[in-house]
Structure formats: structure tokens, C-alpha cells
Fold this sequence. Notes:
22% of the residues lie in helices and 12% in strands. With 153 residues, it is an alpha+beta fold. The chain has one domain. The strands form two sheets. It has a three-stranded mixed sheet with strand order 1-2-5, with no helix packed on it. A hairpin with a 4-residue loop joins strand 3 (56-57) and strand 4 (62-63). The longest helix is centred in the N-terminal third of the chain and has 6 residues, at 20-25.
Amino acid sequence: MNKPAQRPFWKTKTLAQMSSEEWESLCDGCARCCLNKLEDADTAEIAWTNVACRLLDEKTCRCTNYTGRQKLVADCIQLDVEMVRSLSWLPPTCAYRLVNEGRDLYDWHPLVSGDRESVHRAGISVRGRTVSEVGMEPEDLEEFVVDWPGEGV
């Protein structure tokens, strides 16, 4: 007799119930959270840029110093359950946001596809589309406002 297929953890657990390993594996590696964003002071509307944190490795879409990033980058955040619920700028394709909203992961998500490169092939990641913030003045960010794939999802 065949056992019923076990449902993936992101379909059976809330974000708060996940182990740290499960939590970390939800990150699809798009690196959009590593981009500089501008917030309109009057409307709170977020404008996305293609300006990447100085610690982002654009080829891998991974932080070059993940464990020490918060000491090196003053405004780097440690994403947690409460932040997922309150941050307006999480991309609509973000697995943390999707799970929090009771939605499923996209087919290109590495946990679904089994392939870390699928997010890049799907055109969701920032790979090959960023400039570094190194040497850039904050007032220059407005020149780098862009639309990212999936924002209308």
C-alpha cells in the first residue's frame, strides 16, 4: 500500500512554526530585498531601484557576508515573522510573503523546482540588472528607479 505523499513544510506550517533551516530555505535567492528602495514621505509609496547593497554578489544573488551583514550595513534588517506581516516592500513573489498570505510558492521557486537557478531563469532575480551602491550618494538613487518583474503578480 502506498503512503500518501507528505505535504511540503510551507503548506503545513506557519512562518512562526518553521525551524531556522526551513525559514532560511524559503528565500528564493532573488536578492530584491538587497536593493535600495525609496519611500515617499507623504504617501509611503515604495519606489524600487536597481542599486544593490555593497555586500551583494550580483552573480550569485547572495550576500558576501550574510552573518556579519547587520554590523556592516546599518539599515540591513533581519527578516522575521512580524516584519513579513508589516513590510510593504516585500516583493509579491517573495516566499515569506506568499506563505504568510496562505498562498503557494511559484513553480520557479527552488523548493518547488529543486534547482537554485530556476529563480534566475524565470527572470525574477536581480542577477545581471544591478549597479552597486559603492560610491553613490543617497540623492542619486532617484536616477535608478525601475520596475521589477512580478510586481503586478
